[in-house]
Amino acid sequence: MNNILRKLISRYYFSFPKNLVYMLQASEYDLGEFFAWYWRTNDFRTVSKRKSLVKTPKAMVLLILSWVILLSIYFSSLFFAIITAHIWYLIAGLVFGPVVLPYILVLVLLVMALLQIPLEFVIINKAKKRLLKNRALRIAVAGSYGKTTMREILKTVLTEGKKVATVPSNYNTPLGISKFILSLNGDEDILVFEMGEYYPGDIRKLCRLVNPDIGVITGVNEAHLKKFKSLENTAKTIFELADWLGGKPLYVNGEDLIVKNFLKNTSRNQEHYSFFSRNGLGKLVVSNAKTSLIGTSFDLTHGSENKVFSSRLLGLHQIGPLLVAIDVALKLGMTMEKVIAGVGKTKPFEHRMEPKTDSAGVVTIDDSYNGNPTGVKAVIDFLASIKGHRRLYVTPGLVEMGSRSEEIHREIGRELSNVGIEKVLLIRNSVTPYIYNGLIDSGYSGEVIWFDDALKAFASLPNMTVSGDVVVLQNDWPDQYV
Amino acid sequence: MKNIAVIFGGQSAEHEVSIITAHIPIIQSLEALGQFKVFPVYISKKGEWYCEEKFKEMSFFQEPDFEQQLLKFKKVNLSLNNHFKIIWPGITQKSENIDIVFPAMHGTNGEDGSLMGLLRFANVPFVGCDMASSAIAMDKAVTKQVLSAQNISVVPYVWFVKSQWEKNREKILDDIKKLNWPMFVKPVHLGSSIGISKVKNEQELLNAVEVALHYDNKVLVEESIEDLIEVTLPIIGNENPELGSVERPLNKTEFFDFKDKYLSAGKGQGVNAQYSQIPAEISQELSEKVKELGLQSYKGIGCSGIARIDFLINSKTGMVYVNEINTLPGSLYHHNWRKSGVSSVDLVKKLVVFAEQRFEEQKTLSFNFNSDILKKFKGAKG
């Protein structure tokens, strides 16, 4: 009873406006996502569990405006109550103020967006002009997954012989990329762009801005499936990069079955596509590939040369992307020695299959930024290759999988079971029961442990592990999905 | 689901350490295990008993005003009438019967056997050492007496109580002077190295005794082992105990004091997380000797459930001495067990099983003896 009452009055807490603005920001001002959260939530007191409001100018303006709106409602209702001598005006104002606040905020946001359009137009045009003068080679990376890792690999390897600039993470919209372009010195040899896709046409728009010389397509999967509706739409959007490049070189992930199927049913000319995989890329042939908790190594035959490469990245699936960087580097005239040194410097990027060993001797593989089915499969394949360790797999499942959610999560359960993961720690939510069903379907013999939320699971981990254990933290749900 | 009460805090110099042990790893692990309903029972420094859901989070006790917040809660009553029942008094009185108790008390008024005595009266199984072994281990001098009676080597020592010190100081000093300098002066009942000093001459000795008598009315003076290697060995189990890893604390200061033991521990790691070598880099031979003496001592004072045996090794002579026995190692020494392949969850699970086993065994003993002495008794006059 007490709790229900608290939920009802949680809109009237002092923190309510701040929490609204936080959630707008967390959902990247996507109104659909924001309202999905708003209508689902009934307790607004504990909203920002993982992160907190980042004080950007936009967020601060919204926060100040929300207080201005709220206070104006309160004062005008007080004013009416006084002049009409009806207390009901005041009560109505106090009660309904916070209720209407989110809708007024959204209207404000729409107005801000309208005002922003011409401003963005100016910035983007300025960036386009600046880029015309820039002589650097432009590499564009597109795909549903693996973009950041690809970008980091390219940067690390090519930096051995060239001056490379890359777009920082989460700057993958036209405005973000424009800001990046405007920050360049102009003396770069290579620019690497990570292209984000949310709606059909997005990649084409970015290509128009960047005009890439080389493209890399890392793959297609169910990421953002809710927005794209079908994998066909996702693939089409990502292949806007291929269409834009025309006859220019394009590297395509040859391990990706969705890409392969998509290309089978299309009339595209694929002559200039280079398919990469763990086995090789064009004339680069891989043999003797090995992976462990320390990293990955392989022999590479290039014409008459045979060299050993090693990287600190985990998993054989990393070899394909490494080959892309090796191929680009060699074609740009870098020596084999420099390329080997560059590959040797590649290491896991933050929260992406990043291993850490604690003082108790437990290896935690932080894969919390990996929330896509292809990445999950890669991690499970990697765990399968780890011998002599007890393995614990912690996950809240994946978000935005649309109609394919049940199938994907069941498959994850089946794979975990087939690989014989010793313990699976699941966070209670709408999708983890599918993982559980998948585990049960395939006769899982390990232990399943349930947690009410991810933070509780993380807190319990030190109590459940011993020296030598390998723990995978797979995906972390942002607050708007919790 | 069984109800388990974790009892911690208490009127002891190690009150705070007990709060840490209760949470890291006991409550956290019991919660992660998911097989018990956990009742965190906190005994305040004033000796008042509370039991609230909020106590499951250690952060509650880290709030600066937690003692004020405590006043909002109801003190609980206990019913010990052949059961252990927690009662929240009031108009809507609530009570919970506890199936098993997990004592997490360090030091006096808890680890010393007094709580165990109470729990035996309540006829409830409890984790860890029983009353007698707890009481023996709590007194460093008695521990040495019991161990040396079983030919387990201990460092030469002298002990005395406050009144003897006040009356026969000269005689005691004569006895002490038969030992070799430098020496350690220790209050016999305190753990966590509180009130312990190392002394090199008579003046330092007098000061140290004064400090020790401030904490305790019984004091132990013992020879210090030079070329010292300190190691410790955690042990769990009843009839067939399991050994943890021989651990060597790598202390920063001259000996392993309170600060090293607890305050330097890493965040969230519980006590004793750092400054340790596990397993200790000592010879195979020494390590075997430590394990053998460890088991003998564990059984020698009648431990069950869990304990930790501390050793002093003279690295020149290779002599191994048992120094003291701790019947509730801080944070259960879970960092050592983790390195030995036992996770904290498995550790608490095992300890609960050991507690239930011991309880079942004790039940088979007969405490009743049918006698007709009352019938034959003819009255006080005889």
UniProtKB/TrEMBL annotation, chain A:
<feature type="transmembrane region" description="Helical">
    <location>
        <begin position="103"/>
        <end position="124"/>
    </location>
</feature>
<dbReference type="InterPro" id="IPR013221">
    <property type="entry name" value="Mur_ligase_cen"/>
</dbReference>
<feature type="transmembrane region" description="Helical">
    <location>
        <begin position="60"/>
        <end position="91"/>
    </location>
</feature>
<keyword id="KW-0436">Ligase</keyword>
<dbReference type="GO" id="GO:0005524">
    <property type="term" value="F:ATP binding"/>
</dbReference>
<dbReference type="Pfam" id="PF02875">
    <property type="entry name" value="Mur_ligase_C"/>
</dbReference>
<protein>
    <submittedName>
        <fullName>UDP-N-acetylmuramoyl-tripeptide--D-alanyl-D-alanine ligase</fullName>
    </submittedName>
</protein>
<dbReference type="Pfam" id="PF08245">
    <property type="entry name" value="Mur_ligase_M"/>
</dbReference>
<dbReference type="InterPro" id="IPR036565">
    <property type="entry name" value="Mur-like_cat_sf"/>
</dbReference>
<dbReference type="InterPro" id="IPR004101">
    <property type="entry name" value="Mur_ligase_C"/>
</dbReference>
<dbReference type="GO" id="GO:0016881">
    <property type="term" value="F:acid-amino acid ligase activity"/>
</dbReference>
<keyword id="KW-1133">Transmembrane helix</keyword>
<feature type="domain" description="Mur ligase C-terminal">
    <location>
        <begin position="351"/>
        <end position="473"/>
    </location>
</feature>
<feature type="domain" description="Mur ligase central">
    <location>
        <begin position="141"/>
        <end position="328"/>
    </location>
</feature>
<dbReference type="InterPro" id="IPR036615">
    <property type="entry name" value="Mur_ligase_C_dom_sf"/>
</dbReference>
<keyword id="KW-0547">Nucleotide-binding</keyword>
<dbReference type="InterPro" id="IPR051046">
    <property type="entry name" value="MurCDEF_CellWall_CoF430Synth"/>
</dbReference>
<keyword id="KW-0472">Membrane</keyword>
<keyword id="KW-0812">Transmembrane</keyword>
<keyword id="KW-0067">ATP-binding</keyword>
Automatic annotation (TrEMBL), chain B:
<keyword id="KW-0460">Magnesium</keyword>
<dbReference type="InterPro" id="IPR013815">
    <property type="entry name" value="ATP_grasp_subdomain_1"/>
</dbReference>
<feature type="binding site">
    <location>
        <position position="140"/>
    </location>
    <ligand>
        <name>ATP</name>
    </ligand>
</feature>
<keyword id="KW-0963">Cytoplasm</keyword>
<keyword id="KW-0573">Peptidoglycan synthesis</keyword>
<comment type="pathway">
    <text>Cell wall biogenesis; peptidoglycan biosynthesis.</text>
</comment>
<dbReference type="GO" id="GO:0009252">
    <property type="term" value="P:peptidoglycan biosynthetic process"/>
</dbReference>
<dbReference type="InterPro" id="IPR011095">
    <property type="entry name" value="Dala_Dala_lig_C"/>
</dbReference>
<dbReference type="InterPro" id="IPR000291">
    <property type="entry name" value="D-Ala_lig_Van_CS"/>
</dbReference>
<feature type="binding site">
    <location>
        <begin position="222"/>
        <end position="230"/>
    </location>
    <ligand>
        <name>ATP</name>
    </ligand>
</feature>
<keyword id="KW-0464">Manganese</keyword>
<dbReference type="Pfam" id="PF01820">
    <property type="entry name" value="Dala_Dala_lig_N"/>
</dbReference>
<feature type="binding site">
    <location>
        <begin position="184"/>
        <end position="186"/>
    </location>
    <ligand>
        <name>ATP</name>
    </ligand>
</feature>
<feature type="binding site">
    <location>
        <begin position="192"/>
        <end position="193"/>
    </location>
    <ligand>
        <name>ATP</name>
    </ligand>
</feature>
<keyword id="KW-0436">Ligase</keyword>
<dbReference type="Pfam" id="PF07478">
    <property type="entry name" value="Dala_Dala_lig_C"/>
</dbReference>
<protein>
    <recommendedName>
        <fullName>D-alanine--D-alanine ligase</fullName>
        <ecNumber>6.3.2.4</ecNumber>
    </recommendedName>
</protein>
<feature type="active site">
    <location>
        <position position="14"/>
    </location>
</feature>
<feature type="domain" description="ATP-grasp">
    <location>
        <begin position="144"/>
        <end position="353"/>
    </location>
</feature>
<feature type="binding site">
    <location>
        <position position="326"/>
    </location>
    <ligand>
        <name>Mg(2+) 2</name>
    </ligand>
</feature>
<dbReference type="GO" id="GO:0005524">
    <property type="term" value="F:ATP binding"/>
</dbReference>
<keyword id="KW-0133">Cell shape</keyword>
